[in-house]
Amino acid sequence: MAVYAETERTLRDLAERFRSGRMSRRELIQGAGLLVGGSTLASFLATCLPAEAATAGAGSAGQPKKGGSLKFAIFGEAPSLDPMFTTATITKNLASQMFEGLLSPDMRLRPQPDLAESYDMSRDGKTATFRLRKGVTFHNGKEMTSADIVASLRRFTNLANRGKVIAGRLDDIKAQDKHTVVMTFKQPTGRLPLFLASFEGIMMPEEIATKYMKEQLKEYIGTGPFKFVERQPDRFTKLVRFDNYAAGPGEPNGWVGRKTAYVDELLVIPVPEDSVRADGVITGEYHFGELLNPDSYDSLKSNSNVDTYIVKPYFWSAIHFNKKQGMFTDLKMRKAFKLAIDLEPGWRAAWGKPEFWRLQPAMGAPETPWYTEVSKGEYNKKDPDQAKALLKEAGYKGETVRWLTTKEYSYNYNFALATKPQLEAVGMKVDLQLVDWATLIQRRAKPELWDVFVTGHDTPNHPVLMPFMNPTWPGWWDTPEKNKLYNDLFAEVDDKKANALVEDMERLVMKEVPYVKIGEYFGLRASRKELKGYVNPVHFFFWNCWLA
Amino acid sequence: MLAYILRRVLLAIPVMFVVAAGVFLLLYLTPGDPVSVILGPDATPQQVTELRQRLGLDQPVPMQVGRWFSRLLQGDLGQSIYLNRPVTQTLLERAEPTLMLTLLATLFAILVGLPIGIISATRAGGWADLGAMLVALGGISMPSFWVGLNLIFVFAVTLGALPVAGYQPLSKGLWENLRYLILPAVTLGFAQAALLARMSRSLMLDVLREDYVRTARSKGVGERTVVLYHALRNVMVPLVTVMGLTFAILMGGAVITEQVFNIPGIGRLLVQSVLRRDYPVVQGIVLVIAFNYVVINLCVDILYGLFDPRVRHS
User: Fold this and answer.
1) What are the residues facing A310 on neighbouring strands?
2) ipTM strictly over 0.90?
3) Which of B92, B140, B151, B262 is the best substitution to test chain A (most A C-beta atoms within 10 A)?
4) Which residue, among A36, A536, A60, has the nearest Cα to A314 in the 3D structure?
5) Per-residue model confidence as pLDDT tens digits over A329-343
């Protein structure tokens, strides 16, 4: 079986190289001897044949028009279309076309009323009152009332990753009248809006929420601009325009405001090969492709039928330490690790073109309202001498650092590979344990099996939503200071004060070194010129988009 | 003959059980956890534990093996963990693309490989023979993903004549279906055609040196009849074995070709299910592949009888 996995990986790598080979023949020939014949053939043909047949009019934006089937290629099959069930990003992307939350983020990622018309949070952070929009219908024709919201919120707090965090503080969820819902809490929970607007807090009819209270949805009935029709795994998922959609008031702004579905249907096609996703957009097979290889950026950008988009902010990555067992339970060891490395070479090896990455210290991105630079002074300051001194103080005697890594996300392995020599230079012994993703996430849950691993986190998520804030998440950041600060942040009603607490949290990260923030990386997407109205949000959506 | 077929079928059952048990144990010894894959990167250990319990993955392996076998005896391959639907349904959905691709690729291989082999043999040592065998050698040596990517680049991206990748079911019309399958079928069939060409050439050369061929020629039988009627029939016996095995291999899913051309067939499902640790699906596919081998071997034996009367009468 491992042979198949290996084949797939080699295949993916070769596909990447092949694509970049179109740009630089020399590299390709040097890199893979067996490709010599093909590149010659390809370049010969490229010079003999017309470069690109213009297939569609790529005129100016013009007036929106209804109709058409929008085909978009995504990188794989979603484990589920239920974002309360799984935290997979791909699920959030698809679900947000069909489902809406009480609150949803605007373009600047601030929670705003969506299915709620307005909401109040009491000053003590213990009571949240939501007044619902009237005249909203579900895809099954039923009118949305507070009973549906109460049941959906119950399911959210019972099942969803972020909902369960809320559940510990929750006192009750009640329908005050047909269009008012009240949530009460045992402890102040001022950051509640962030949890509700996390794409996991989707609203569905009461009977569905009750039926699937503890398991994943098999019926997808939301209030969103598109409704679910059919799903054939690994082939397509089909959504169509919901003609009775009740759009929210106000100008379109991210996931809130006026949402209009112009296209008749959305056809979501899983295409695991990134080169095929890019080629499909070039030839017009797909209108839109996500998660493209940065190597294909230049060729896509130079194509007159294609628009390219860099998604910023997108994800950030960190080196997480095992703080429960092994050498990195010692703060000195974590500090030594941090001081031993310069993050830039590794991050460049991981992402290549400078358009696709940046180094900055915070959990938030400069584009988010909670961005801070308080930890800049202590970020990425390589000092091998001090690292060596700390190792000595910690009594390090050449024990092996077990670094879990995977090639399924090639950046993960490339970063580790480029960073390892720096650790060895200060005398640390590093064993890169290369496994597939399914193995990595299984092993990282067992403290006896590893010392460090790298993973990505959604940059649009507020620090209070970060998975490592949970003391049971692999890495086990469980100190009294952090737990108290996290609790204060969670409780805070006022946004400004909350931002100050985020700054404190960043300072604490520098003090306790639970992880080493590496940097951010950005996604590449491309669309056909005939796709209009697309605003390139973090999690893509296709309302207010039309096909010219 | 009937008794022979029956005996072969009965013998196949224990073979398949051994395969099934082997795969089951191998998968459970492989590290990795389907639940963590499904629940996504931010899932808490508590969520993982809960779902593992609900799916019965926390039970001891012997118990899981037992449960799986008892369901298998009732014809139930179980439920896909990742796709949350029955394995049988999942496999049936993937059968059409793989079957169509295999048929087309085999057809291509036979239509191209066999004539080239025969022509080469009749002109052994000549320029046509040398050229054909050079191409065939290339065909065997070139990895299929490389051939596939080149074909995509030339015919889909540069010329825009055929789709880049994907699959349209037969229900959308035969041409629509074929349009998407031409490039993958050529990719897949190319290596097989090359193999067939080389095999049929050398077999044909052997047969053409036989006494009965000389007798036929001395009787004044035309060269065309000698080659196509007298010689080809004898070449077919070993060739059918090769073609049958090729077909069986392809039916298991042309993993790489399906991946490159984004065809939702058995091969792609197998690879993805391994990466997702979707145990029931992997077991189901391996069982189906084992079953295919058994059935196709059986068919090959029956075809032997048609081509070679000695087998029929023994």
Assistant:
1) A524
2) no
3) B262
4) A536
5) 999 999 999 999 999
Residue spans of chain A under pLDDT 50: 1-60
Average pLDDT, chain B: 84
Q: Look at phi and psi of residue B30 and say left if phi exceeds 0, alpha if psi is from -120 to 50, else beta.
A: beta
Q: What is the pLDDT of residues B144-162, one digit of tens each?
A: 888 888 888 889 888 888 8
Q: How far apart are CA B38 and CA B82, in angstroms?
A: 6
Cross-strand partners of A434 = A405
Residue A114, token pair as written in the block: 């969506």
Of B39, B90, B160, the CB nearest to A87: B39
**Among candidates A15, A89, A439 on the partner chain, residue whose Cβ is nearest the Cβ of B31:** A439
User: Of A5, A441, A455, which is closest to B274 when you measure between CB atoms?
Assistant: A5
Cβ atoms of B140 and B194 closer than 8 Å: yes
Q: Which residues of A touch B157 (CB under 8 A)?
A: 279, 282-283
Q: Answer whether B157 sits within 8 Å of A279, measured CB to CB.
A: yes
Contact list in A for residue B282 (CB cut-off 8 A) is: 1
Signed CA dihedral, B242, B243, B249, B250: sign only: positive
Structure tokens belonging to residue B222? 């035309």
- What is the C-alpha separation between A519 and A365, in angstroms, rounded? 10
B261 to chain A: which residues are within 8 Å by CB? Answer: 276
Residues of chain A neighbouring B32 (CB-CB closer than 8 A): 436, 438-439, 442
Q: How far is CA A440 from CA A6, A404, A445, A474, in A?
A: 16, 7, 9, 11
Neighbours of A428 (CB within 10 A): 22
pLDDT, one tens digit per residue, over A75-110 is: 888 889 999 999 888 899 999 999 999 999 999 899
**How close is the nearest chain B Cα to the Cα of A34, in Å?**
8
Q: Please, are residues A522 and A312 in contact by the beta-carbon 8 Å criterion? A: yes
Cα angle A268, B88, B60 (rounded to 5 degrees) comes to 105
CA torsion sign for A146, A147, A151, A157 is: positive
Residue-level pLDDT at A34: 34
Q: Do A272 and B262 touch (CB under 8 A)?
A: yes
- Range among A137-151, A155-169, B94-108, B262-276 with highest mean pLDDT value: A137-151
Please report the pLDDT score of residue A19 as a whole number. Answer: 43
pLDDT category, B252, cuts 50, 70, 90?
A: low
Q: How far is Cα A384 from Cα A172, in angstroms, rounded to an integer?
A: 54
pLDDT of residue A56: 33
Subunit contact A269:B143, Cβ cutoff 8 A: no
Taking CB atoms and an 8 Å limit, are B82 and A79 in contact across chains? Answer: yes
